[in-house]
Specification:
With 184 residues, the protein is of the alpha+beta class. The chain has a domain at 1-37. The chain is 63% helix and 15% strand. The protein has four helices and five strands. The protein has helices at 3-14, 17-37, 82-89, 109-183; strands at 41-43, 47-54, 57-60, 67-70, 73-80. The protein has a three-stranded antiparallel β-sheet with strand order 1-2-5. Strands 3-4 form a two-stranded antiparallel sheet. A hairpin with a 6-residue loop joins strand 3 and strand 4. Helix 1 crosses helix 2 (17-37). The longest helix has 75 residues, at 109-183. The radius of gyration is 38 Å and the shape is elongated. Keywords: DNA condensation, DNA-binding. Belongs to the bacterial histone-like protein family. Residues 96-109, 125-139 have a biased composition (Low complexity). This is HU family DNA-binding protein.
């Protein structure tokens, strides 16, 4: 999963893509700033982001095999928490967080008006979708009824056609036999 897919998943649960993108960007930025300062960023059950010091050491060049001195360095590191480890290993099942979104009180009156308009649109969409699905079920039900009656009618007509076909062949058979005898 990349960043865009991550934002899409958050937006699917919260309902607002722009807010989800902003939250992800701010969270990543704040984690990076804290780690650069040398602080540990810890999320209970998830893990710890930290800055690690690596000491100077001797290493080998894989091509030539000669010894190379590596200077001391600082690297970012992530240590997974026990809860995260248990999820990955399968010792614990992942539970979904509540999908109900928590809304903060609006800062401006225009924001409140926009949120009520959005809520009204969502309820209107939900109602029209429900109406469409009921209508679709009704139409589907009438189509099924029409298909079954058509099949029954075809089944009734089929034996009469077969019977008529056997009657005509039975009538034609003696005439054919007579014609064959006359030819010989």
């Amino acid at each position: 999963m990349n960043k865009a897919e991550f934002v899409d998943r958050i937006a699917a649960r919260t309902g607002d893509r722009t807010a989800a993108k902003e939250v992800v960007d701010v969270a990543i930025d704040e984690i990076q700033r804290a780690v650069v300062k040398g602080e540990k960023v810890s999320f209970a059950g998830f893990g710890v982001f930290e800055k690690r010091q690596r000491a100077a050491r001797m290493a080998r060049n894989p091509r030539t095999g000669e010894a190379v001195k590596v200077k001391k360095t600082v690297v970012p590191a992530f240590r997974p928490g026990t809860g995260f480890k248990e999820l990955v290993t399968g010792k614990r099942k992942a539970g979904r967080a509540a999908t109900a979104k928590k809304t903060a009180p609006p800062a401006k009156k225009t924001a409140a008006k926009k949120s009520t308009k959005k809520a009204a649109k969502k309820t209107t969409r939900a109602a029209s979708t429900a109406t469409r699905s009921v209508a679709t079920k009704r139409v589907a039900g009438t189509k099924k009824a029409a298909k079954t009656t058509a099949k029954k009618a075809a089944a009734k007509k089929a034996p009469t056609r077969r019977a008529a076909a056997t009657k005509t062949t039975a009538k034609k058979a003696p005439a054919r036999k007579a014609a064959k005898k006359g030819r010989r």
